[in-house]
Amino acid sequence: MQNSLESLVNVLESYRGRDKVIRTMCYGSQLVGGVLSEKLASSSSTELGKRLLLYSAQLSHCRTVLRLFDDLSMLTYSQSYGLGAGEEDSPLRWMSVLNNAADQLYYPCEHIAWAADAQIISTNSDKWWLLSGVLWGLSLILGVLRSLRVIVLLRKKLRKLSQGSSSEGSVAGRSQLQRQVRGEVLNILSSLADLSNAVHWMPPGFLWAGRFPNWLVGLMGTTSSLIGLIQMGASQAISA
């Protein structure tokens, strides 16, 4: 119990860890709130559902405000990666560069939309929310394509190791590559869950835009968020 509490505190003390926890609570509240707000629910359940949806909206707004400070960290990462000179695979390199560009442009667009809604600046926020949503969706699609490419490359390495010796080092190498493949599969599942919500928030008439009920948006977001928490816990366990 004490170790679990300490692990939770360690997660909450880091910015990325706290954001993942807030994100999970945000979408989890929307999932439960959406279910309780359905027509078949009792009046007391419906009231609780509405309160959970309001709570989810506040957590979402909290994350939007916190992202006002993400530009520099993203810029630092983009500069360190550059044009991916250290990347051996050309398709993987350019997908990563485009992904970084989409992520970098996303933040100022969202900031402008937020400032317009807060009446800090005088402009129509709708077009900026739309642009930020498009950039987010593009980033997710590129992320899926990148993970698929990584899986292809990892499987090639696995086949080479399987055809080689069965030494202890070779077995350890295959185990590490298999873990990386599972990690990329989780990345794909997480990105597809988020992409379904990104399409939902597009203007009506585009695919399934606007057709998701609250509980389904919450389900997709919760799935993605839990995968993120699992991956973070796994990376911390490996580094430890």
TrEMBL record:
Keywords: Membrane, Peroxisome, Transmembrane, Transmembrane helix. The keyword Cell membrane does not apply. It is found in: Peroxisome membrane. One of its GO terms (cellular component) is peroxisomal membrane. GO terms for biological process: peroxisome fission. It comes from the Eukaryota. Pfam families: PEX11 (PF05648). InterPro entries: PEX11, PEX11C_met. Its main location: membrane. The keyword Transcription does not apply. The chain crosses the membrane at residues 128-152. This is Peroxisomal membrane protein 11C. The lineage of its organism: Eukaryota, Metazoa, Chordata, Craniata, Vertebrata.
